[in-house]
Amino acid sequence: MRKSVLISILCVSLVLLGASSALAFHDEGVARCSGCHTIHNSQNDSTMSFAPGPGPHTDLLRASTPTDVCLSCHGTSTSRGVWGTLVQGTPFTYNEHGAGNFAYNNATNINDAISGGSGLPGPPIMGYKAGHTPKTNTKGFPNGDPTPTMTQGPGGDFPSSQLGCTSCHDAHGNENFRLLNGVGEVQGDLEYLFVNPAPVALGMPLSSSTFETNSRHTAYKSGMSAWCANCHGDFHQASGSPGLRHPSGEVMNSAAVTYDLYNGTGSINGGNHSTAYLKEVPFEDLAADTNSTLGPTGISQVSCVSCHRAHASANQDAGRWDFGLTFLNEDGQVSGWGNINPWAGQAWEQRSLCNKCHKKDQYDALNP
Known about the structure:
The protein is mainly alpha-helical and about 375 residues long. The chain contains seven helices and six strands; from the N terminus they run αααββββαβαβαα. The chain has a domain at about 30-65.
């Protein structure tokens, strides 16, 4: 009898151990402390392969900045890498789960636009203008953006030189989408406060080995624009913004019909609601699902992430497409990066993806 009990206990223990080991490292709580920290610096930094330069490091970290600690696991992993290695002229092959990739920050040029009416390429735009540039030593940005046009987040007051992974994510874990910081203090040493809660969304499985597609993508439900406003202020909100360029966090109304019908410059009315979703131009909807191909409804919302990626992209300002180009087929022809065209097979030259909601290229198809 005693032997049976012991065997049963052992089996239960192994099952629980297996279940525990399968959980994510940060799974809604504190991760394995020694994965990021070293107690009393007792391990000596020379034994830590991802610790750049001499230690000890602040906060007993195993690398010189919190971002470098994060990148020790998340940098180039095939399934969840956020900062890969670029090879000029070679399409970026790391899996895209929606937020974009910091790899483009290391590019020497992301500008494919023509300079004025010259017909010649414009001046190079360095990759650190491709979106958020975190403060990291291992990737060559010890002070974040080396030539910031703004020392604070556009529209807000978050110091650009202090931007890092933990500015947006809680490394110790929480219940929010992608461990995004909620209301309260972020980056304790900075004592910066978020006043808006984390957004509600569903993400593709991080273990996925496939790129995002129109039927496999992040499902943004609500709150993304307000959350971005924690650092960027009332940058693009509809009420009281003196530099208003585009509403965000607002219902789409009749633009939802345009979104549904638009199927490229050559087929501006050829789409339908059941297959209208375009991963390059997502929207927020409470009913959103990661496998849905449905277009928006009138109460769906346009969001910051409808036009931008959260990390970085092959385009300036983390654009989901290059805002400076007339035709999408120009993307990547100079820089070697990009080439985002959902309707590349159509006979017409595809105009900007702004048209997915606005359809201002409606006469182009008459003159292919």
